[in-house]
Specification:
The complex is a heterodimer of chains A (306) and B (282). Chain A is α/β, with parallel strands linked by helices and 306 residues long. Chain A has 2 domains: 215 residues, P-loop containing nucleotide triphosphate hydrolases (Rossmann fold, 3-Layer(aba) Sandwich); 67 residues, no CATH class. The radius of gyration of chain A is 20 Å and the shape is globular. The relative contact order of chain A is 0.15. Helix content of chain A is 34%, strand content 19%. By secondary structure, chain B is an all-alpha fold. Chain B contains 12 helices and no strands. Classes of the chains: A alpha/beta (306), B mainly alpha (282). At the A-B interface, strand 6 and helix 2 of A face helix 9 and helix 10 of B.
Chain lengths: 306, 282
């Protein structure tokens, strides 16, 4: 058996309605390695959330499969924690109640005190100590999403699935939470798959960025490797990093132009859906002087500004 | 401050309206000096000789009503024979029937509503029955109940049961059916079993809607019990009203009306309080 990554998406397709309908996405292949932070980026309507729901086990694909830990998934699992876009806290429970509900689902035999202690650790981890007896309605949007993150982490899953977790937050709160997620994921070496449409968020958080074309019939166009090392990514001076604009421009160029005209690229250069091209636009900017860029790089707008 | 002044003014206005009603009533029921217009002989027969020939109309003055209310409230729980029981006893009979019928209806309606809300199949299968039976006046069931149960007291409880069931059934089904998908997804991703999901997620999520249904049901039950007891007789506030009509004691009837209203208010407020306990802000 070939050596698979922790999550392996193999030939995934999803159609809604009758079989004759065009697929929202089809022939989707990519993998997420253990300990990796992987972002999926694409326009609304390309089926990002559907892919995440399939990974979570909440939706079933029309074709293909998702292999996690060498087993095909066939439903939700406590190994794959989901952080929902709209936090999805149970409003009649307190912060503690929401997290304890998850903890006691994971370890049904634990007594009340043990569940509380464990939940409290994760409430503290996301900086909400003191708010554990509040109801979600008494919390700000950022605090609610922190509870959602604490709930997902508290069950100590093998991987985290995040569906645009910060999109409903104001810029300041979003930035703070991004920093915290980055810190927590680095500390715990968590495997993360996140959906976003925010280019800067992807560059800050992700080790690899999967680019998805527009639907219907959306596909994985290529996978951008974030060559900026994790410890050099800081929200405040991200824009000063020599690779930043190269990566950013590459992503923006994709979202603005290439995502809708990908068929033409396929016609010109060919396309193997099973092995999406790995590109490193960040390194491209470092080797601007190089006469022949590595063949794997698609020569589009790279960081000429610098 | 502004709110307080509004409340004060509203209270003043209420008192004013009350005084006006009592005033008009007083004027209308004052004994007339000249003998009144010739009375319809049929009516004279109906109201009895004393009332027909006397100067005083059968309609009591506010003072009479006040005295009657005071008399009832001073000794609400006496029993002097089967047709002469204190008004408190009569209300207790009615309240007991309502709570029993309503309680039984809740025991059936809430689990069944849960099933309907969870299963589109059951919903579609039961929908025609519900749609047909829901608009039927509960009193229409009375003869059927009397024939099959052969006990008037239990029949009136059955009538309460059948009228309480619909709002609770429909609200429970609606509340359960419209639980937010994301909350159910939370339970699914946490691999929570069906029973735990039902009790820890669906029930609390639907509880405010279910409580609204219970509040509507208890209101209808309290409306229906008076009519049901008028039919079956024996005991209860409805029977009391009908009995006092036969005695032509308008003062007693008015007292009963006021007390029925008061008890209905207390029932409604009690359930409103319970509803508040299970309501969650989103």
């Amino acid at each position: 058996m070939e050596n698979r990554p922790l999550i392996s998406v193999e030939g995934l397709a999803r159609r809604f309605g009758e079989t004759g309908q065009p697929a929202v996405f089809e022939d989707i292949w990519f993998g997420v390695d253990k300990g990796e932070f992987c972002c999926l980026i694409g326009h609304s309507g390309c089926g990002k959330t559907t892919i995440l729901n399939v990974l979570a086990g909440l939706d079933r694909p029309s074709g293909g499969a998702v292999i996690v830990d060498n087993r095909e998934i066939d439903g939700p699992s406590l190994d794959r924690a989901v952080i929902f876009q709209g936090h999805a806290l149970l409003p009649w429970m307190t912060v503690m109640g929401n997290i304890a509900f998850a903890v006691s689902s994971r370890w049904p035999n634990w007594d009340r005190a043990r569940v509380r202690d464990h939940a409290m650790r994760f409430i503290e981890l996301v900086g909400l100590a003191g708010a554990e007896n509040k109801r979600p309605a008494q919390l700000s949007g950022g605090m609610k999403q922190r509870v959602g993150i604490a709930r997902a982490l508290s069950i100590q899953p093998k991987m985290l699935l995040m569906d645009e977790p910060f999109s409903a937050l104001d810029a300041l709160t979003r930035g703070m939470l991004q920093d915290e997620v980055l810190r927590i994921c680095a500390d715990t070496n968590q495997t993360v798959f996140m959906i976003t449409h925010d280019v800067d968020e992807a560059i800050l958080l992700a080790d690899r960025i999967v680019l998805m074309t527009n639907g219907p019939g959306a596909r994985i166009a290529e996978i951008v490797v974030n060559t900026m090392p994790k410890n050099e990514r800081h929200r405040n001076d991200l824009h000063r990093h020599p690779q930043y604009y190269a990566i950013r421009n590459h992503l923006v160029e994709f979202l603005v132009n290439r995502s809708k005209a990908f068929d033409r690229e396929v016609a010109e250069h060919g396309f193997d859906p099973r092995r999406p091209k790995l590109v490193k636009p960040g390194l491209m900017s470092m080797k601007l002087s190089a006469v022949n860029p590595p063949a794997e790089i698609v020569p589009l707008t790279t960081g000429r500004r610098q | 401050m502004l709110k307080n002044s509004l409340r004060l003014r509203a209270g003043l206005l209420s008192v004013l309206i009350f005084v006006a009603i009592v005033g008009i009533w007083q004027v209308a029921t004052m004994p007339t000096a000249a003998s009144g217009p010739a009375m319809d002989p049929e009516y004279a027969k109906l109201v009895g000789a004393a009332a027909a020939t006397g100067q005083k109309s059968a309609m009591p003055t506010p003072a009479d009503i006040g005295a009657t209310i005071w008399k009832h409230l001073a000794d609400p729980f006496y029993i002097r024979g089967s047709n002469d029981k204190g008004i408190g006893i009569q209300l207790a009979y009615s309240l007991g029937r309502v709570l029993l019928g309503f309680g039984l209806a809740a025991l059936v309606a809430i689990p069944l509503g849960f099933l309907i809300g969870m299963s589109p199949l059951v919903y579609r299968a039961l929908d025609p029955f519900i749609q047909i039976l829901k608009p039927v006046s509960p009193l229409a069931w009375m003869p059927l109940a009397l024939y099959t149960i052969k006990d008037s007291a239990i029949s009136s409880i059955f009538v309460i049961f059948i009228c309480s069931i619909w709002p609770m059934l429909i609200n429970t089904a609606f509340g359960v059916g419209s639980v937010r998908k994301e909350w159910l997804n939370v339970a699914r991703t946490l691999e929570v079993g069906p029973f735990r999901t039902a009790f820890k997620v669906i029930l609390p999520a639907a509880a405010p809607t279910i409580m609204t249904g219970m509040r509507i049901s208890v209101g209808i039950a309290w409306l229906v019990i008076v009519a049901a007891e008028m039919l079956v007789g024996g005991t209860g506030i409805g029977y009391f009203v009908w009995n006092e009509w036969n005695n032509l004691s308008i003062a007693n009837i008015v007292t009963a009306i006021l007390l029925i209203g008061l008890v209905g208010l207390l029932l409604d407020q009690g359930l409103a309080y319970l509803a508040k306990l299970v309501t969650y802000p989103e």
